[in-house]
């Protein structure tokens, strides 16, 4: 179950349109949610979804099935925390917590990101929606001592949360 405020409200029009989309159009839409081709294929294969909860369950199942390489594909679609992709409304919205932050904190975040990336070989990934720059920095520092295997599972969970938010937004915007 999701914490989404409209989780109990089905969006039959949006959901039906998504489920009925031509494969190429559905793939394009799903790639906007998550850049892993395997994730998109798994979610698409679960259609038709009976309701919002079923679509989110398809996300959870697809995330659980991703290999290390698939996780890398999924992370490739995410900007470094503290540096949202310019002109990318999703990236800017999700990282709104860094707006107006003083440069010293941004510099700390940048330094911690660089150390994390050197250790793990990928960007630090966290569901940034609703988080401040300070809480993201704290989480980055807290997760840095993790083993690569432990961190991969945390990343998988964070990606699932991000995808849930993006799928819910997709249904709400097209409803």
TrEMBL record:
GO terms for biological process: purine nucleobase metabolic process; urate catabolic process. Signal peptide: none annotated. Its EC number is 4.1.1.97. One of its GO terms (molecular function) is 2-oxo-4-hydroxy-4-carboxy-5-ureidoimidazoline decarboxylase activity. Pathway: Purine metabolism; urate degradation; (S)-allantoin from urate: step 3/3. Pfam families: OHCU_decarbox (PF09349). Residues 21-168 form the Oxo-4-hydroxy-4-carboxy-5-ureidoimidazoline decarboxylase domain. It catalyses: 5-hydroxy-2-oxo-4-ureido-2,5-dihydro-1H-imidazole-5-carboxylate + H(+) = (S)-allantoin + CO2. Keywords: Decarboxylase, Lyase, Purine metabolism. SUPFAM superfamilies: UraD-Like. PANTHER family: 2-OXO-4-HYDROXY-4-CARBOXY-5-UREIDOIMIDAZOLINE DECARBOXYLASE-RELATED. This is 2-oxo-4-hydroxy-4-carboxy-5-ureidoimidazoline decarboxylase. It comes from Kitasatospora viridis.
């Amino acid at each position: 179950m999701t914490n989404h405020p409209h989780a109990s409200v089905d969006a039959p029009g949006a959901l039906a349109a998504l489920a009925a989309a031509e494969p190429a159009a559905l793939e394009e839409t799903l790639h906007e949610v998550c850049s892993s081709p395997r994730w998109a294929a798994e979610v698409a294969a679960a259609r038709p979804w009976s309701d919002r909860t079923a679509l989110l369950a398809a996300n959870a199942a697809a995330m659980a099935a991703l290999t290390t390489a698939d996780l890398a594909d999924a992370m490739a679609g995410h900007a470094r925390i503290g540096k949202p992709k310019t002109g990318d409304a999703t990236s800017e919205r999700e990282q709104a917590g860094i707006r107006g932050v003083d440069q010293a904190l941004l510099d700390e975040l940048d330094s911690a990101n660089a150390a994390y990336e050197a250790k793990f070989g990928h960007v630090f990934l966290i569901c940034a929606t609703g988080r401040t720059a300070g809480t993201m920095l704290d989480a980055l520092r807290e997760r840095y001592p993790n083993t690569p295997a432990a961190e991969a599972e945390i990343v998988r969970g964070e990606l699932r949360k991000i995808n849930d938010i993006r799928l819910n937004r997709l249904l709400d915007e097209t409803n």
